[in-house]
Structure formats: C-alpha cells, structure tokens
Automatic annotation (TrEMBL):
Pathway noted in the entry: Amino-acid biosynthesis; L-histidine biosynthesis; L-histidine from 5-phospho-alpha-D-ribose 1-diphosphate: step 1/9
InterPro entries: ATP_PRibTrfase_cat, ATP_PRibTrfase_CS, ATP_PRibTrfase_HisG, ATP_PRibTrfase_HisG_short
Protein name (database record): ATP phosphoribosyltransferase
Primary location class: cytoplasm
Gene behind the chain: hisG
EC number: 2.4.2.17
Pfam families: HisG
Assembly and binders: Heteromultimer composed of HisG and HisZ subunits.
BP terms from Gene Ontology: L-histidine biosynthetic process
One GO cellular component, as annotated: cytoplasm
Length: 220
C-alpha cells in the first residue's frame, strides 16, 4: 500500500510563486485550498497519495525536520536559522528572492547597549545573527521579535535589526539604512533525510521533478 506523502508549504508570500512549480511537479491541491475563507490546514491533492499542509514559514522546516511532513518548500533564511541535521535542501527553486541584512537608524545610533564588542540586535533570526557577529569577534545580544523589527531602534529596544529586505521600502519608511548583507535568500525544496532513506523511489522522483524544473528555468 502506498503511504501518503505530506508536503508542507508556507502560507504567505512564497506560496503564489510556489504553486505553479508544484503543479508542474505533480502536486496539485484540491480547489478548496485556494479559498481564502477556508480555515482547513490540510488539503487533499489530485494525487490521492499526496496531501498539502499550509503552515507558517518557520514551521515548514520544523514539520519536515521531524518527519511529520516528508517534504516542503521554504526560504533559505529559515533553513539556515534552524540548521536542522535531518533537513536536506537539494533544489534551489529560484523563487522568493530577498536578502537577510543588518540595518540601523539613518541618523546614527543612540543606544546605551553597544560597545565595540557587544551589540543589541532585534531579529526573528537570533541564531544566524549570533553566528554572523561571532565570526567577526562581536557578541550580539538578540531580542527575538516575530515581526515589525523596524520599530525596535526608534523605541530603544535595540540599536540594530537583522531582517529580510526585498525592495528596501520598509527600511526606508522607518528611517533605517542597510549596512551589511548576511545572507542572500531564495526558496528551496526540502526533504526529510530519514524519509528519503525509507522511500527513496518516491522522494527521489520528487527531487528530480523539481530539479528538472529549476534546470529548465536556468536554460531558458
Ligand atoms: N520581502 C520579503 N520579506 C519577507 N520574506 C520574504 C520576502 N521575500 C521573500 N520572502 C520569503 O518568504 C518567507 C516568508 O514566508 P511567508 O510570508 O509565507 O511567512 P509566514 O509563514 O506568513 O510568516 P510569518 O511567520 O511572518 O507569518 C521568508 O522566510 C522568505 O524566505
Ligand atoms: O524590503 P521590502 O520589500 O519592504 O520587504 C521587507 C519586509 O517584508 C517582510 O515583512 P512581511 O511583509 O513579510 O511582514 P512581517 O513583518 O509580518 O514578516 C520583512 O520582514 C520586511 O519587513
């Protein structure tokens, strides 16, 4: 008997770009998936042996790393933040491009927390942030926020932020400037390593379908 493959996708901005790629790889959700009022989180697919779960971006990595979902799509920012050993990210899907950057007030820093070897940073990415500063001999004290990081410097919560930047509009509109890029970001196909060992044919075929899409996009 074929078991059900659970494929995890983030509910927000990557999804619109991911759906056409998923369809070309044979993962097509039931029509109810597209109904914005639908509160269901798990959806059947055209292929009766596949289901899609729609969760928050960080949780895609958690579901797949723990084997609750066998595969999924998530940004490289999330993969790098968690650094789960059970996650395999074999295909760069060339969608969801942005960058993870440090920003600070354009008019200079007024915080009392900072000195040459110690900074206070507001971010959703404390692990990546600490690692990046540590490699430069600086201890970053991270204040974890889940959104609206841009408010932190003006309200005295931190002197800098580490956040995703795409057009730069959010930084600009909040009086911040980008000072360094930590990581270029794009969305990846992720697979649970144990599931790949248990069901190499099915997950191998899935990886190959997405790889072929990404290769043909590069060749075009
Ligand atoms: N300008 C951007 N800002 C934020 N994320 C972006 C941007 N461009 C691409 N991304 C990608 O989208 C992902 C966020 O996905 P999504 O919006 O689905 O998250 P979410 O689950 O709604 O997040 P949240 O936890 O904030 O609710 C990021 O991890 C990143 O890889
Ligand atoms: O450079 P820009 O094009 O302005 O994009 C960057 C903004 O987009 C993201 O937030 P998002 O809109 O995903 O909302 P969030 O704060 O709820 O994560 C990110 O956290 C920035 O705030």
């Amino acid at each position: 008997m074929t078991s059900t493959l659970t494929f995890a996708v983030p509910k927000g901005r990557i999804l619109e770009e991911a759906l056409p790629l998923m369809a070309r790889a044979g993962i097509v959700p039931e029509p109810g998936f597209h109904d914005k009022k639908n509160r269901a989180l798990s959806f059947a697919c055209e292929d009766p042996h596949t289901r899609i779960i729609r969760v928050r971006a960080f949780d895609v990595a958690t579901f797949v790393a723990h084997g609750a979902a066998q595969a999924g799509i998530v940004g490289s920012d999330v993969i790098e933040e968690f650094d789960y050993s059970d996650l395999y990210a074999p295909v760069d899907l060339d969608i969801g491009h942005c960058r993870l950057s440090i920003a600070e007030p354009k008019d200079g820093i007024e915080g009392e927390f900072d000195n040459a070897s110690h900074l206070r940073v507001a971010t959703k990415y404390p692990n990546l942030t600490r690692r990046w500063f540590e490699a430069r001999g600086i201890q970053a004290e991270c204040v974890k926020l889940n959104g609206a990081m841009e408010l932190a410097p003006s309200l005295g919560l931190a002197t800098r932020i580490v956040d995703l930047v795409s057009t730069g509009t959010t930084l600009r509109e909040n009086g911040l400037v980008e000072t360094a890029e930590l990581l270029p970001v794009s969305a990846r196909l992720i697979v649970n390593r144990a599931a790949l060992k248990t069901d190499p044919e099915r997950l191998g075929a899935l990886i190959e379908s997405f790889r072929a899409l990404s290769d043909s996009a590069k060749a075009a």
